[in-house]
Amino acid sequence: MGYIDFGSSVLGKMMKVGVQPDVVTLSTLINGLCKRSKISEALSLFDEMMEKGYRPNLIVYTTVLNGLCKTGNTDRALRFLRMMEERGFKPNIVAYSTVIDCFCKKGLLSEALDLFSKMKVKGIRPNIVIYNCLIHGVCNLGQQKEATRLLNEMAGNNISLDIVTYNILIDAHCKKRVISEAVDTVDAMRKQGIEPNVVTYSILVDAHCKEGMVSKAEDIVDTMRKKGIEPDVVTYNALINGHCLQNKMDEARRVFQLMSKKGCAPAIRSYNIMINGYCKAKRVDEAMELFHEISQKGPTPDIVTYSILMQGMCELGRLSSALKLFRAMLKSRLELDIVSYTILIDGFCTAGRIEVAKELFLQLSVNGLKPDVYTYGIMINGFCKKGLPDEAYQWFRSMGNNDCLPDSCCYNVMIQGFYRNSYTSEATQLLVEMVSMGFSADLCTATLFVDLILQSNKSILI
After folding, report:
1. Does 400 reside within a domain?
2. Higher local confidence (pLDDT), 3 or 98
């Protein structure tokens, strides 16, 4: 039993024997529940406090608000913020920053900016933290003009950019693949007396690696060390990934081993990058060695680890190994997702083992999952390649039963399946339907119908 469960148990016993807990006791328990993301239980306890006449202080309100935001409950967080005001508690800059940051992280930029405006109307002066939240949000959505407006507003309020602001801007330039502008921003930052930190260097290392400039990334890491800044797990992961992208797995392994020697323990993402690199290089046995290593000494494999390995095994036709990994994943009690199932379904369809793929597909609903349009496309293509266009068409028409309507790709796959199985009339009818739905024939479908036109001397509008 965890400490929070124990605390709840003690609280229950206190209430039974008539001992009334004070506001501090209840606030402590609410804080613990929020930290463990048990937000529903925290809200229930909060409501119970109110019903029994307790008056939570601003700290309790802010704790619950933070818990709602951390669990992504943006609508409830906004309602809770309004409730605070209605009950006589004026939310401070921290409360507003928490909700605005939550909006930004969910891509709800207009809502964030609207709340920001309301905050200023209430006379609350923005600080660097809230500006950084907003600038990060607008940069993530590629809204450079809005970012510039916010930066100018900061300057007008005599708020100087800090290292966090500069890192956000550097990261935005790197994501736009304009490293030269990122470097210019670093120079501008230095002129303001702010030196790059490990986050700055990690952003630059990652950007150079993704552009194939791994040797330059290595130079940046050397510069870090000369400045007395040790690379962290994010820096090492970026460098390892850079070598993997170049298919230089021995170099990736060297960096991977170096991070442990330097006292930086590899995280599960570090292992996943290495395992993915080995799988892409068709060196799945070495990938499995790493998998066994983490199974024995940690960190715990996650669903990404299993999915990467299953993909690697399927691509090499080692379906029994992929299935074994899938069963191990089920036993590990990881939360299943559609991706891992789709990888396995695709592997069996590609191998022509459509019945096994069908069985896996039917397991989705049993495990509370719904197939997506990509999963359906794989199954439809699998049936068509197996010479079963009628069954493929049944699955195509049943997509709506899972609230999954065919997209352009599904239509094209089905049409090509009909054509290759000599169902030219059905293929033509479905082409007309596809066009009426606003979709277009892809290159393969168009080529097939051009051939049909040439053979039959009939005109078909594509």
Report:
1. no
2. 98
